[in-house]
Structure formats: structure tokens, C-alpha cells
Amino acid sequence: MYASIINNVGRSMKFTTEEEFFFTNLLKKESYPAKTKLLREGEICQFEGYVQKGCIRIYYVNEDGFEVTISFAIEDWWVSDIASFHEQIPSDLFIETLEDTELYLLTPQTKEELLQAIPKFERVFRMLVQRNLTSVQNRLINTISKKAADRYLEFISLYPTIPQRVAQYYIASYLGVTAEFVSTIRKRLLTE
């Protein structure tokens, strides 16, 4: 039942069977149907979630009322609003399931309990934050320096299964282009 999340955290640090048991006992498994808002702008994020199954989108609504997708989270990824969760401040983001989704959740309290009991988990979460920061930096550089077609190719290499799983306009909002542009790029790549 917990094999995938144990494998995920085990990439950064090895744990004993007892430590794994302690960790999994703190997790709360939740299932959500597609189109469930797990977090809304203005709410305080009360979870860090490991995606066991499903697809999630993190986005904000800009000053013109348009949804801008920041990232996606699929199986074997973690999802949260890091700033809101750690600082316990209102979020600027929305987190929404795009498919039926199963998550293993930690709350601020259960995460603190975990870190107090097994300090080795500090490394696991530090590594997750470092990977997230690397991803954000790469995305920023790509957005500034690459053409839209190249950004699409980079997106496909990062999220190879997403185009078959989500609406084209979500991908377009992630890339900062129109859905029509994404359609044109896809068609062109299929003919090459």
C-alpha cells in the first residue's frame, strides 16, 4: 500500500522498517474526484501531499481574471503551496485535481511530529524543496529565454504523459500561449 511513497522518500535517505512504519502511520490517505479544489486563494494550505494516483494543477488567477497554470503534479510527485504551508499564511494559489486523485497527506502538525521523531526526514524534505526550486528556476529561465515551441518541447520532456491527460488550454496557460498555438505545435511535431 505504501511502497511508492516509501520508495520516493528512500531516494534521499535510507530508513529502518520502524522508521517507515512511524512515517506511514502519520499519513492520511484521501481520495478526491476530478475538479476538486484542494486549496483556494486566500486559504492557508494545511497539507503536503504525495500523489499516489491522479493529476493535479496548481494555478493562480491574474489581474485580468485568467487562470495561469504554474505546475502539474502527477503520480510520485509531491504537491503543496510551500510558502502557505510553512509560514501558515494565506495562499495566492489554487490547487485542483484534474483527475480522480489519491493523496497521502501530512499536516503541519504531523510533519513536525515526524521531523521531531526522525530527524533524517529533514534531508528528505530539503531535497524535495531543492528539486522544486531547481524546477522553478528552470521554468523561469525557459519562459524568459526560449521560444514558445521550445518551451512546449521542454514541457513534454518534463511531463510526457500530461498532454494525454489534461485539456489543451491548461497546457497553454502553463506555457503562456493560446490553446490554438499548442494545437499548431502538436500538429507540426506529428508531421516531422
TrEMBL record:
Q: Among its keywords, does the record have 4Fe-4S? A: no
Q: Which domain of life is it from?
A: Bacteria
Q: Which SUPFAM superfamilies match?
A: cAMP-binding domain-like
- Coiled-coil residue spans: none
Keyword Hydrolase set for record: no
* Domain Cyclic nucleotide-binding: residue ranges: 30-116
Recorded hits in CDD domains, A to Z, give: CAP_ED
Single Gene Ontology MF annotation: DNA binding
InterPro entries, from UniProt? cNMP-bd_dom (IPR000595), cNMP-bd_dom_sf (IPR018490), RmlC-like_jellyroll (IPR014710)
Keywords from UniProt, A to Z, are: DNA-binding
Q: Which protein is depicted? A: DNA-binding transcriptional dual regulator Crp
- Name its species: Myroides odoratus (Flavobacterium odoratum)
